[in-house]
Amino acid sequence: MKYFWLIPALSSVLLLACEAPQKSEPAPSEPPAKTYLSSWNDGTVKQSILKFVDEVSDSTNPNFVPVGDRIATFDNDGTLWCERPLYFQFYFVLDQIRAQAKDHPEWQDKQPFKDVIAGDDDAIFRYGVEGIVTLMSSAVPPKNVEDYDLMIQNWLDTARHPTTGKAYTDMVYVPMLELLECLRDHGFKTFIVSGGGLEFMRPWMNQVYGIPTDQVVGSYNKLEFTTENGKPVIIRQQEMDNFNDRDEKPLNIRRFIGKRPIAAFGNSDGDLSMLRYTAAGDGARLMMYVHHTDSVREWAYDRGSLVGGLDKGLDTARAKGWLVMDMDKDWNQVFPK
User: Fold this and answer.
1) Beta carbons of 253 and 269 less than 8 angstroms apart
2) What pLDDT score was predicted for residue 5?
3) What are the angstrom distances between the C-alpha of 229 and each of 232, 244, 304?
4) DSSP strand E in the chain: where?
């Protein structure tokens, strides 16, 4: 080995190379904390919601609530989407009555059908509860529930709000969508508990709110299980079986959810029983009313309103220290842009 004398030198070089400090990769940075309720203005309501959510989802906090008990219930009309000038389901009913008028000559001289056919939307209230029930039960004949789902979806795809010209599903409240996301990100299961028709709401709730059909509680019609062309089907009847409003809301929460909510959100006296039921539980609780105070971006109304009337509920909320969200002051955005 002519160059054996190089071996010690090469060994030293290799040893130094191994001992040389290696350039380390930068430590991965922490992802930025997610910002919640960005369409809510900073204030007592926003901070109270975030504080409640943080406390019940923090296992080290005395107010911690296990995931399985983090139940939040939401009214729909006037709480998650607009309800003026009429409840949106009423517009569906009026459209169906007018579309069927040619097949029902007996309606031409019978109220409230006569006024509705003439284009008078307010007729749905003029004839009282009996008139409303008559119109709603006549709007759609008995129908396979799957066909009814498609009927609702087609109507929502084409119908437009009479004042704004927007699709009805574009008149959801952005801040409430953010609230739903915040709750779900913190382990809540979110339910709709509405006076609206169960079959009217189910076809679009998941797409618009991210709430699946089995988490929707609403008013429901009688159903019939039968066979058509050899296939078992369920037929939605015209007669209502349960009107999910006022005291029926906590009863149906028990029937269909089985647990008392720890958070409840509404906008009218029709939601008061649900909020009272929620408040009566042990531990941390959050009850909130959406108060419609913005006559520019939406509508301003509360006491005495035929749609979404808030009277006793407003007094109760203020007396008990529940949150009353002021739409004009607390939201920097109402509808999607």
Assistant:
1) no
2) 42
3) 8, 34, 51
4) 71-74, 143-144, 189-197, 216-228, 231-242, 263-266, 286-291, 323-326
Structure tokens of 7? Answer: 């071996």
Q: What distance in Å separates the CA atoms of residue 171 and residue 76, rounded to the nearest whole number?
A: 12
326 phi, psi to nearest 5 deg:
-90, 110
Evaluate if residue 15 carries a pLDDT over 50.
no
State the Cα–Cα distance between residues 131 and 112, nearest whole angstrom: 6
Does residue 324 surpass a pLDDT of 50? yes
- CB-based contacts of 206, cutoff 8 Å, min separation 6: 212, 213
Say if residues 104 and 115 touch (Cβ distance below 8 Å): no
What integer is the mean pLDDT of 9-27?
A: 48
- Residue predicted with more confidence, 166 or 29: 166
* Backbone region of residue 307 per phi and psi (left: phi > 0; alpha: psi in -120 to 50; beta: other values): beta
Distance CA 24, CA 36 (A): 35
Is the per-residue pLDDT at 9 higher than 50?
A: no
Q: Could you tell me which residues are beta bridge partners of residue 73? A: 191, 264
Structure tokens at 154: 């087609």
Q: Quick one: pLDDT band at residue 33, thresholds 50, 70, 90?
A: confident
Please name the residues in contact with 266: beta carbons below 8 A apart, sequence gap of 6 or more.
Answer: 74, 75, 79, 272, 274, 275, 288, 289, 290, 313
List phi, psi (to 5°) of 92: -60, -45
Rg of the chain taking only CA atoms, in angstroms = 28
Alpha helices in 227-295 (DSSP H): 248-256, 272-279
pTM: 0.90
DSSP 293: B
Q: Is 160 helix (H, G, I), strand (E, B) or coil?
A: strand
Mean pLDDT of 160-169: 98
